[in-house]
Known about the structure:
Blueprint: H1 2-19, E1 26-30, E2 33-37, H2 39-83
Antiparallel strand pairs: 1-2
Helix pairs in contact: 1-2
Amino acid sequence: MQIDIKLKETENALEELNKLEENAPIYKNIGNLIIKADREKLIKELQEDKETLEIRKKSLEGQESKLKEKIEELQSKLQEALKK
Length: 84
């Protein structure tokens, strides 16, 4: 869920950056500081973050699926053992 939230925030930031004019000043949070940032570098950084988050999300979804399968398998084995 946290990854979904970060992914949505990143997508929203990219969307807003693309709406701005080329010469509009852009600022970025770094810890407690807000500094002026280069638009192209920031867009590239956000796109890379988005790709990383998408890969992490897919990986976690795969792990979740495998765990669910394992749980179902163990439940069926447990039920079989209890029947005997």
